[in-house]
Structures are given as C-alpha cells and as structure tokens.
Amino acid sequence: MTDPSTQPRPTLEAVAARAGVSRATVSRVVNGGEGVREPLVERVNRAVEELGYVPNQAARSLVTRRHDAVAVVIAEPETRVFADPFFALQLRGISKELTAHDSQLVLLLTEGRDDHARVARYLAGGHVDGALVFSLHLDDPLPSLIHGVPTVYGGRPGWSDGSRGVVYVDCDNRGGAREAVRHLVGLGRERVAHITGALDQTSAVDRLDGFRDVMGDADPRLIVESDFTPGGGERAMRELLDRCPDVDAVFAANDLMAAGAMRVLRERGRRVPEDVAVIGFDDMLPFTEQADPPLTTVRQDIEEMGRLMARLLLRGLERWGGAGGVGVPASVVLPTTLVRRGSA
Q1: What is the maximal distance between C-alpha atoms in the chain?
Q2: How confident is the model at residue 324 (pLDDT cuts 50, 70, 90)?
C-alpha cells in the first residue's frame, strides 16, 4: 500500500487540469479573488476537494496580503497567565472566533521589559494580520511600540483619550462594583472593606471608583491595595483584620482574591457570611460555584469579551487605518450582573 505522505502534493496545475480551467483562474478562486463566474468557482472547488489541494500560505499571502493569523499579546508573565482562569476563558473566546474564520492564534507573552521590543519587532514584521492585546499596565510601553498594526485592546487603555483610533472591549467595571457594594449595604453591613486589584490597571481603578461611589468617604483603612492573585487576597485580608477587626463585609476586585480572603477569614474564626459577607468580581465558573460557601460575585462574560475582541479585529481589517480613524470599529463595553450565592 502506498504511503500517502510520500505522494507529491497536488499543484495548481493539477487542479486546473481537473477543473478544465486556467492556472490563473484556480489561483484567483483559492486565494479569494473576484471576477470568476460562479460555475467556474464550483468546478475549481470540486477539483480542490477531490485532489486534496492545500493552498501555499506564503504564495497566498503575496496575493491577498493576509496571513490568516492574529497575535494575542498578554502583558503578564507566563506563571500568571497559566495560573489564572480569567486568561483561559478569554483565550477560549478568542480561539473560537478565530477558528470560525480559519485564522490562527499566535500567543505572545511579555515576561519582562526585554520582551516588549521582541514583541514589537514581531508585530512589525508582517507575520500577522493584527493583534489582540490585554492585561496592560499603565506604564506599559507596548502600545507606543506597536506601529501600523490593527489592534484591539482587552480592557479600557489608561492612556486612551477616547478617540476612535483606539478600539477596546471591556465590561462595566465601575457599575458592577457599585452594584456589589450596594448589595452589601442593603444587607445591613456597616464596615464594608475593599480589596483592590493592581491599581496600575484601569479595571482595578474603575472598581475602586465604584466602591467609593457608594461608600463615599469610607475609612481609608478599609481599602487595601492588592494584585488580583489568591495570595494577594490573603495578605490583604490579614491586613484588613489587623487594622479593622470589626469589618463585616468585603468586596474583592476579583474572585481569586475573594477566595483568598475567605481562607483567611476561616483561619481567624470568622464565619462567611454570618460574620463577614464576601463578594468577588468576574464569576469564573465553576470556580465560584465550588467555593465554600459558593461565591456571590459580579459576572462579566469573559469568554464573550474574547470573542468580541477577535470579531472586531477581523471585521475591521479591510477598513483599518482610514483617515481620521474612518472605518475603525467602535469600542464595546459589556454590562455586568450581580450573581447572588452563599457568601453574601
């Protein structure tokens, strides 16, 4: 029996002979060109399927100026990316959308400052059609290094002035935080604390602003800055209990920190929610449902945010870069929902 792997790959000429058309006609059809009558398109596609022809991507890129590849840039070290389910959910949404459009995902991580120039060189080298960039920090130089590459950001960039040239997908961080804190106040809690995320990221700043919208001039000792990690939530909760032993509610800026806070409360003999009510942010299933007790949290559709980022980029590729940002997609801010469970 002949090993298929040893057989020569079908060529454009072979497809043309099978379809009874010219090589140029086959090239236009397989590369997405226009000007070919529908009956000929059908004959070419049938010949491609029968022969198992696979277009040469390099040659196709020369014709279409597209690479069918999108870079996903996460401005975090790999230890954080692969430990935090938030990134897995967002990548899943991005991957689903790119796969549906026959486009490849190229993952780029920035472990440290030296990686920024490497990522910028790769993006400028014409290897991908565009970039999806998220988890930026306020002092991150990457946006200023990306030139001429269609880009959609995950989360509102802190340096954005609201111009249409900057496209992002985010959730209503401030409104979701307000709803969480109002719920705690509505439960009769009087010493409501907040564990913030890293305040060099706009999501953390917006959630802190939402907390302050409700609590006004709350005791500053009830606000502790953290870093969106479980260990950060534990450290912040210990600090809160040492500062303010009478705290009776905590709004943590994400679910991982809320889980860390609940571990410390158990260690200190505080019951959740009887002694201290706890609310998180994100609703990362099944993590939140399996918490003890199940975690009340603000839900943002993380996977859908990833899908939307990819969708905005793919839809805008043909129009990107018009004068004054004409044709550039509009940014999207998704609503949030408070999901009530056992912790508050």
Answers
A1: 83
A2: very low
- Cβ contact 53:19 at 8 Å: no
Contacting residues for 40 by C-beta, under 8 A, at least 6 apart: 19, 21, 25, 29
Q: How far, in Å, are 21, 179, 272, 286 from residue 261 at the CA level?
A: 69, 20, 10, 18
Q: CB under 8 Å to 149, separation ≥6 — which residues?
A: 123, 124, 128, 130, 131
- Spatial distance between the Cα atoms of 172 and 320, rounded to a whole number of angstroms: 26
Q: Are 151 and 130 in contact (CB under 8 A)?
A: yes
DSSP β-ladder status, 104-109 and 69-74 = parallel
DSSP codes, 314-331: HHHTTTTT-GGGTTPPPP
| pLDDT tens, residue by residue, 120-145 | 888 888 788 889 998 888 878 888 78
Using alpha carbons, list the distances in angstroms from residue 340 to 20, 191, 300, 337: 65, 20, 14, 10
Query: Which pair of structure tokens corresponds to residue 317?
Result: 């590729």
| CA–CA dist 85, 287 (Å, integer) | 9
Q: Which residue type occupies 164?
A: R
* 3-state DSSP assignment of residue 68: coil
Q: How many C-beta neighbours within 10 Å does residue 343 have? A: 25
The string of DSSP codes covering 28-39 is HHHTT-S---HH
Candidates 137, 164, 154, 166; CA nearest to 71 is: 154
CA–CA distance, 256 with 312 (Å, rounded to integer) = 29
Taking only Cα atoms into account, the Rg of the chain, rounded to an integer number of angstroms, comes to 25
pLDDT in tens, 231-240: 999 999 999 9
- Residues 89 and 306: beta-carbon distance below 8 Å: yes
Q: What is this structure's pTM? A: 0.78
Reading the block at residue 260, the tokens are 């860390």
d(CA 102, CA 150): 18
- Helix 255-267 vs helix 230-243: crossing angle, to nearest 10: 50
**Residues paired with 298 in a beta bridge:** 281, 338
Tokens coding 307:
């899908």
Q: From CA 118, how far away is CA 122, in angstroms rounded?
A: 6
